[in-house]
Each structure stands twice: as structure tokens, then as C-alpha cells.
């Protein structure tokens, strides 16, 4: 009877596999111990299995996978399982699924009862199989046109950007290439055997930064050249070593080597003329991105993803003449759209250099901070993709800096305005300028972790999550607080006008501001030049008393300011209980941030205590919500 049960199980299994034959299933998970006990045997009895399927011999009491390889079904055990023998069928015979195999003892008086038991067991197994199939996503299609290993859900168009840490070495480059392939053709099942609900993507462009610390290495090489030494051997080892690790085509190796030789020649020129202008510096750092995209495109082609490398100007990225911090020209979006529509096959992944472009004279420029992100959003806006994906080394946007707050958690959804404030006040998110093309085109930006691709990440869009009281906590350290008090009791209009005229004259920018009729307090970023601040103080001293307070920090809550009374009540209860003195406060005109100026030596304690209250339900002074303390 056990053999009969196993034969029926094998028959049902074969029938189920037939229903999904030539489908897009990469791995179909079964629990073999629910069909046959350990050491049971599924034999080829009266041709129950089709001629194209091997027999499954020795089903074990373990999880197992049936995978399709070149059109043949193979039985594969999980790691650590005993080896399973695969025996090819020799004499197939076609029978009805419901046919019960005959036996030599067909006249046995017990055969009818055994047959009834077998029928009941068969029904149970059928029910089990039906239940399992019901767990598969109804959006997945089992048809001849489906590509193996991919979902039949319509793919969404995306641009994908990978930073230097994601491409640190050959191992990381390979990981990213495999990640891109898996996003294009997502496997049916996750590693834990759960159904993979990930939507497949069509990457219209993959934007790459320089590998690892290449940009810093190039800047250091420029400084060394000014001192009379030229040495880029570390870069040669990284770039050419990666090419050799993958055994990339000779053409790719030659292109990368040509760029490195060109870089070396340029540095020799710097050494001879003892000058490294902003224009030359932009060209120098461009070699990192230009090598990176050629390596990535070649690796993608190796693993079956059609790809082609492009320098940014070849796809229409044009800028003004501000070397080191260039801005995209107004017509860039249109030029990108025209280049892609006329020159690039939408089914070929365009691997594009981030961070760099061409000015109107054809010279290389760099886009400044967040430049690669800006390239990704600009191309995304031009192509009207469904989503821009920015892959970093964290699980999206977090509630606080995880280096300080170990319990920081990802924020699933934030608005563009919230993300801009977070970035401005120190969080490692997209730079506000980088988000502008996506904001104007109303395209969501998803921040994901290349080291943990299964994490959902954070979506930046126009809406965010209006139900949250506080979205995140961030800070900016090394700030100087400047108090300016009028000596002449000027009216508010004249006083403030005179103050900011001097700020403009000395090219000093302000982070946070609070003012009254005859006084104003501002914070100055540590990036401000000391000589500019001294000149500003001297100018202001002609009509105001000026005090500078160094060693300060800005603590910013990204919050729903319509609930600011509850937010502030909780904040000041925490600050009062822990002796944290607020020297200045500002509620931003953006309506999504509240900032406090405190001593820098108190900033860590303040962030930890506030995070416990707003995100961990561990507020030691009570959390205020709706006017009530809880």
C-alpha cells in the first residue's frame, strides 16, 4: 500500500509539473515528506511519469526543489541533504491521470479496501497540491511565452544608480550585476521558499559611480603630481585586476587600460606645469566613472544581460561651465530623451557614468555633491520611468544615524520636502538638487540597500506618510551660532536689510535663522571660510554688536508641524529632564522641520533620548500625544 501511495504521489506530482511545463517557474518547492515517508520509493509503474521526466527515486524526509534545466526536470536536495538518485525512464506509457496501476495480486480480497484508502490519500494529496498552487501569485502566468525564471507581471521601467561602496571591488561589481539580472528576471521563490512578489524591472539606464574610493585616490594622485610624483598603480591594480578576475573581453580590457594610460599622461602634465586647475581636476576625477561603466557593462553581458557603456555626454547630459559644481542646462532633459529614443535600444541596459557631463565647449565637468543621483533622476525624468532606484549601503532612509542610534529603523515613505530637509541637515539621503528632476516629473525615488536587496527600502514621493508625528531625527555638527544685536535701534526693515546685505557681500550663507525687531541669530556652517566670517563680523560691527558661539550643533526633527505642540511638549520634557539647554529654536518655513541649537557635546544624548521617545516607546519622561501624557 505504501508503494501505491508513493506511485499516486508521483503521478500527481507529474500531473502538476505538466501544468507548469515550459513556464516561468525557476524553482518549485515541495515538501517531500508530506508525500512519501523517508526511504519510500517512487517507481516507474505502468508509465505514470511522462517520457520527458526522470523518475524520482528515494524521496527523503526533507525539503526539496524541482528545478528546470534545459527543459528537463531535475530533483535537487537542499544543502546538507542526502544525495538523490535520478533515473531516466525507459519505457513510457501514456495513461489517464486517474488510472490506478494494476498489480499482480489484483484478486486479493483486501484490494478494494486498500484502493479506497489509496483514493482517500490521493484526494488528500490533490488537496495539498491545490492549496500550494493557490499560494502562488495570481499575477504569475504559466504559458509558453513566459521567460524561465521571470514573472509575467508587466515590468516597470526604472533607472538604477549604484554608488562607490556598492562597487568597491570585483566581488561587489559581480554582486551588483547579479542583482540587476535578478531584478529583470526575479526568481519565483525567495531563499526562504516564500513566494517572491517582487515586480520585474526593465532598467532603461544603470548609473555607476567610480569603484570604491577611486575618486579620493584620483584627487590624492593630483596632489602628488603637484609635488612631482605620479603614481596610479593602486588604480591599475583595482581596475585591471577586476577585468582579469572576470576574464572580460580583450576590447574591454584595452579600453580600461587606455583610459588609465590617458590619466597617467595627464598627471605627468600636471607634474611638469605644476598646475591643477578646476577644469583639469574635473577631467582627472572623470576617469573613475568612465572605467567603472565599461567594466559593469562587460560583466552584465557576460551573465546574459545585454548592456552597453556610455559616457554621460553621449546620452545627452550637458552642463554649464562651473567646474567642480556644474548645473544641468535647461535643455538637458530633452537632449537625454532624444538620444535615448534615437540611439539606444530600450531592451539594452545603458550603463551610464554618473557625476560627470560636458559643457557647451565639450569639456568634462562634474556635478558636485549628489551628482550621480542627479544623473539618475535626470535620465529617469527624461524617459518618464516608473521609478528611480538609488542603491546605497543602508536599508533606505532611517529614523536616525545608525552609527549613533543602533535601534534606528527604516522609514517606508517620505515626501520630497521631508527628504530635502533631511539631506540639508546632515542625513545621508539624496541631495535636494538631485531630487528636483524626479519632483518635477512626479516620479517616485526608491532608496534601497545593495548589500540587502530584499529589504523594501524607502520611497520618496510627493505624499509621504501624513499620519506620522515625527519622521526622523538628524543633526549638523560643528556649527557656529552668531548673535547680532542692533546698536542704533533701527526699524526691523532697515536693520535686517543691512545685515543681509553684508552677508551677501561676504558670500556667507545661513543654515537656521531666528529674528526680532532689533536682533537676529543665525547659524553658520563649518564649511564657511574663516576669513569670510571675520570680514563679515567687521562689517556688521559698524551698526551691531556681534557675538560668536562655537562648538554648537543643529538638532532637527522632521515632523508634522501641524502637531508641533505635542512634538515640542515631548522634546522640552526630555531636554529639561536631562539638562539639555536650547540656545535657539526655529520652525522652518517648509512646515516639515523643527530645529534646535544646542551645545555639540550634548547632541548625542539628545538624539538618543528623543529617538527612544518617538520611535521606541521607551520615553522616560512621558510621551505627549493629543495633549495627553502617556
Characterise the protein shown here.
About 18% of the residues have low confidence. With 630 residues, the protein is of the alpha/beta class. Helix 4 packs antiparallel against helix 7. Strands 8-9-7-6-12-14-15-13 form an eight-stranded mixed beta sheet, with helices on both faces. It has a six-stranded antiparallel beta sheet with strand order 17-18-16-19-21-20. A three-stranded antiparallel beta sheet has the order 1-3-4, with no helix packed on it.
Summarize the entry for a quick read.
The protein is 37% helix and 20% strand. It has 630 residues and is of the alpha/beta class.
DSSP helix fraction: 25-40%
Q: What is the C-alpha radius of gyration, as a whole number of Å? A: 32 Å
The strand count comes to 23
The whole-number mean of residue pLDDT values reads: 80
Q: Tally the helices: what do you get?
A: 15
Shape: globular
Largest sheet: 8 strands, mixed
Key traits:
630 residues, 15 helices, alpha/beta, 6-stranded antiparallel beta sheet
List the topology elements.
Blueprint lengths: L1 H18 L7 E5 L23 E3 L5 E7 L2 E6 L7 E3 L23 H25 L20 E7 L7 H15 L16 E8 L5 H13 L6 H14 L3 H24 L4 H25 L4 E4 L21 H12 L5 E5 L2 E3 L5 E3 L4 H13 L3 E6 L20 E3 H9 L7 H10 L3 E5 L8 E4 L8 E17 L5 H14 L7 E3 L3 E6 L5 H11 L3 E16 L4 H14 L6 E4 L5 E7 L3 H13 L8 E2 L2 E2 L1
Parallel strand pairs: 6-7, 6-12, 7-9, 8-9, 12-14, 13-15
Antiparallel strand pairs: 1-3, 2-5, 3-4, 10-11, 14-15, 16-18, 16-19, 17-18, 19-21, 20-21, 22-23
Helix pairs in contact: 1-2, 3-7, 4-6, 4-7, 5-6, 5-7, 6-7, 8-9, 9-11, 10-11, 14-15
Amino acid at each position: 500500500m505504501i508503494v501505491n501511495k508513493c506511485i499516486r504521489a508521483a503521478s500527481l506530482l507529474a500531473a502538476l509539473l505538466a501544468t507548469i511545463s515550459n513556464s516561468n517557474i525557476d524553482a518549485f518547492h515541495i515538501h517531500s515528506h508530506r508525500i512519501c515517508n523517508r526511504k519510500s520509493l517512487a517507481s516507474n509503474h505502468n508509465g505514470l511519469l511522462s517520457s520527458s521526466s526522470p523518475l524520482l527515486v528515494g524521496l527523503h524526509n526533507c525539503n526539496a526543489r524541482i528545478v528546470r534545466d534545459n527543459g528537463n526536470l531535475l530533483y535537487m536536495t537542499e544543502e546538507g541533504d542526502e544525495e538523490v538518485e535520478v533515473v531516466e525512464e525507459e519505457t513510457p506509457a501514456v495513461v489517464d491521470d486517474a488510472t490506478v496501476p494494476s498489480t499482480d495480486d489484483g484478486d486479493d480480497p483486501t484490494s478494494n479496501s486498500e484502493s479506497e484508502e489509496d483514493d482517500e490519500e490521493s484526494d488528500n494529496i490533490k488537496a495539498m497540491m491545490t492549496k500550494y498552487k493557490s499560494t502562488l501569485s495570481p499575477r504569475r502566468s504559466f504559458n509558453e511565452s513566459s521567460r524561465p525564471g521571470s514573472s509575467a507581471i508587466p515590468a516597470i521601467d526604472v533607472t538604477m544608480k549604484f554608488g562607490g561602496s556598492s562597487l568597491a571591488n570585483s566581488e561587489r561589481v559581480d554582486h551588483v550585476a547579479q542583482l540587476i539580472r535578478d531584478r529583470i528576471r526575479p526568481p519565483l521563490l525567495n531563499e526562504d521558499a516564500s513566494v517572491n512578489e517582487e515586480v520585474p524591472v526593465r532598467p532603461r539606464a544603470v548609473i555607476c559611480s567610480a569603484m570604491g574610493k577611486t575618486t579620493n585616490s584620483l584627487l590624492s594622485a593630483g596632489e602628488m603630481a603637484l609635488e612631482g610624483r605620479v603614481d596610479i598603480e593602486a588604480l591599475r591594480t583595482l581596475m585591471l585586476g577586476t577585468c582579469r578576475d572576470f576574464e572580460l573581453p580583450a576590447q574591454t580590457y584595452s579600453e580600461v587600460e587606455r583610459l588609465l594610460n590617458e590619466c597617467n599622461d595627464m598627471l605627468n602634465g600636471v607634474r611638469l606645469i605644476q598646475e591643477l586647475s578646476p577644469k583639469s581636476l574635473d577631467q582627472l576625477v572623470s576617469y573613475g566613472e568612465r572605467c567603472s561603466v565599461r567594466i559593469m557593462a562587460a560583466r552584465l553581458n557576460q551573465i546574459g544581460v545585454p548592456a552597453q557603456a556610455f559616457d554621460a555626454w553621449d546620452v545627452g547630459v550637458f552642463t554649464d561651465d562651473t567646474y567642480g559644481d556644474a548645473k544641468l542646462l535647461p535643455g538637458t532633459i530633452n537632449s537625454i530623451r532624444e538620444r535615448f529614443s534615437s540611439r539606444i535600444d530600450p531592451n539594452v541596459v545603458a550603463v551610464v557614468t554618473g557625476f560627470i557631463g560636458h559643457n557647451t565647449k565639450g569639456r568634462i565637468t562634474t556635478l558636485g555633491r549628489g551628482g550621480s543621483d542627479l544623473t539618475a533622476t535626470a535620465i529617469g525624468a527624461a524617459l518618464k520611468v516608473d521609478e528611480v532606484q538609488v542603491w546605497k549601503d543602508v536599508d533606505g532612509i532611517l529614523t536616525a544615524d545608525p552609527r549613533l542610534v543602533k535601534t534606528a529603523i527604516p522609514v517606508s515613505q517620505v515626501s520630497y520636502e521631508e527628504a530635502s530637509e533631511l539631506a540639508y541637515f546632515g542625513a545621508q539621503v539624496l541631495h535636494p538638487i538631485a531630487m528636483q528632476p524626479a519632483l518635477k516629473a512626479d516620479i517616485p525615488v526608491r532608496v534601497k540597500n545593495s548589500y540587502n536587496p530584499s529589504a523594501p527600502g524607502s520611497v520618496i514621493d510627493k505624499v509621504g506618510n501624513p499620519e506620522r508625528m515625527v519622521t526622523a531625527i538628524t543633526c549638523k555638527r560643528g556649527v557656529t551660532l552668531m548673535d547680532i544685536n542692533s546698536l542704533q535701534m533701527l526699524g526691523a526693515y532697515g536693520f535686517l536689510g543691512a545685515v543681509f546685505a553684508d552677508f551677501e557681500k561676504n558670500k556667507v550663507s545661513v543654515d537656521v535663522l531666528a529674528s526680532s525687531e532689533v536682533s537676529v541669530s543665525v547659524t553658520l556652517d563649518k564649511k564657511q571660510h574663516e576669513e569670510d566670517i571675520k570680514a563679515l563680523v567687521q562689517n556688521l560691527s559698524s551698526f551691531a554688536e556681534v557675538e560668536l558661539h562655537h562648538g554648537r550643533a543643529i538638532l532637527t526633527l522632521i515632523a508634522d508641524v501641524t502637531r508641533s505642540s505635542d512634538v515640542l511638549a515631548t522634546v522640552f520634557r526630555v531636554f529639561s529632564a536631562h539638562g539639555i539647554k536650547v540656545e535657539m529654536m526655529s520652525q522652518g518655513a517648509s512646515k516639515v522641520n523643527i530645529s534646535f541649537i544646542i551645545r555639540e557635546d550634548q547632541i548625542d544624548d539628545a538624539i538618543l533620548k528623543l529617538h527612544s521617545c518617538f520611535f521606541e516607546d521607551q520615553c522616560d519622561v512621558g510621551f505627549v500625544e493629543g495633549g495627553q501624557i502617556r
